[in-house]
Amino acid sequence: MKPFIDPTILPSEITPKAIFEQRRALIKVAAAGGFGAGLAPWFAREAFAQTALAGPPAGGVKLKTMPSSYSTTETLSAYKDVTTYNNFYEFGTDKAQPHETAKSLETRPWTVAVEGLVKKPQTFDIDALLKLAPMEERIYRMRCVEGWSMVIPWDGYSLSKLLNLVEPTSAAKYVEFISLADRKQMPGVNSSVLNWPYREGLRLDEAMNPLALLTFGLYGEALPKQNGAPVRMVIPWKYGFKSAKSIVKIRLTDQQPSTSWNMSAPSEYGFYSNVNPNVDHPRWSQATERRIGDGRGFFAPKIKTEMFNGYGNQVASLYAGMDLKKFY
Amino acid sequence: MQAWTLKNSINQAGFLAGFKSLVFLSALLPLARLIYFAYSDQLGANPIEFITRSTGTWTLVLFCLTLGMTPLRLITGWSGWIRVRRMLGLFVFFYACLHFLIWLWLDQDFNLAAMIKDVIKRPFITMGFISFVLLIPLALTSNQWSQRKLGRRWALLHRLVYVIAGTAILHYWWDKAGKNNFSVVSIYLGVIILLLALRIPVIKNQLNRSQITQSNTTS
After folding, report:
1. Distance (Å, whole) CA A274 – CA A212
2. How many domains does chain A have?
3. B residues 156-185 lying closer than 8 A (beta carbon) to A
4. From B68-72, B178-182, B191-195, B202-206, the region with the lowest mean pLDDT
5. How many Å lie between the alpha carbon of B95 and the closest alpha carbon of chain A?
6. Of these four, A51, A167, A204, B203, which has the most CB atoms within 10 Å of its CB?
């Protein structure tokens, strides 16, 4: 594998490590009061913000994972941003809501039924699924269809490991993912914003691509509820909504499954929904994206969106000969 | 009798000045809130989105309030509402400018070609842009000099506000359309329809008449 070089960052823009560390030292001195009382709180906040980027709060249950060559080396999005800015409509349409409202979700007991066109249909207990294959840490870019992105260290294993176990029949062409839709646990399901339960789908060859991750954790810990606990998909070359959360059923079919967003707005959200800077959303451009918590600061300009979210080497061949303007 | 009236009018003038100051300071609160949130790190993971939505929402809220002043005068008979109408209208323009500049700067990166393309291609941006452009002549002619100079045409020009009511709500509606998320925008639509309905001559006369009879019975 070639070393990853981000073409959007010029070498001249990178702060040399020594100067960076000098600045950290300066901030610490300032926070201690050396700069005068007026500035101290501001610097202290800045120093605090840096430590807050480190990861989850202490005390969480760690998952045992191994590193993966599919991981990017880009700067991780802050744990706080990853866990407080979520599109999870079962818990409300506002992205700031789920981290509060998802507390009511019960993730144990939990089972996932794998059925349809498979030789060995089976209902898995979540604890059995956790042990089904070695867990990997996959640091993926996540591009939301709304035009923002994050870099998230997910923990899971390739969906293909599970699919191979249930043995899809030769008739199986698609995989459908069905999320939990329980009014008692999920306040958003009472609203008619979407057709519940949340449904998503992939072509079988897409689902078998090793990048398609059956995901159980992030930042080395079990998934927070607002991020789709206890098990979700992560499909890094597609817009975020393709990655179904809190999955209860995986069904193999011979027909292209109906998907929730496609049913809601067919002209805006296609079945494929691959990240594609050349195909605009009807209401906004997809050429650029705002990286959440961009290290260059509050008013940093947007970055260029990459074809297949930068995963073209691994997935472009899946779409050879297809008109991606038509199959958006 | 004479003295009583004079004292009364001084009180009234004082009350009006106080009322105007209160409206002025209240209208600055949404901006103060954003500055406070920015300082205390409460703008969330995507501060730009937060600021864009907040300034858009407050533009619309102040727009509704501005439209509400005339019906309020008809209903209450107090002319003080009309005395703050221009100020509220200018605050609409102020927040619209912030909303527009954030889009131009942080979304379009001051790239005029990209901006024009965005305006033409996306209906919801088109509507937002039209609303903003139509607000400009209203803000520019909001002074008394223009009012005198334009005479009857001034009132005609300021009827643009009814066009803006339509384009602004469409801007918001189409922004929410893709996510089928109409709960909040429906409320604004309802308020705007009500405020416009109160200007239909039959209804307006009714409001006016009830006011006249009310003041007749109380005096």
Report:
1. 13
2. 2
3. 174-175, 177-181, 183
4. B178-182
5. 19
6. A204
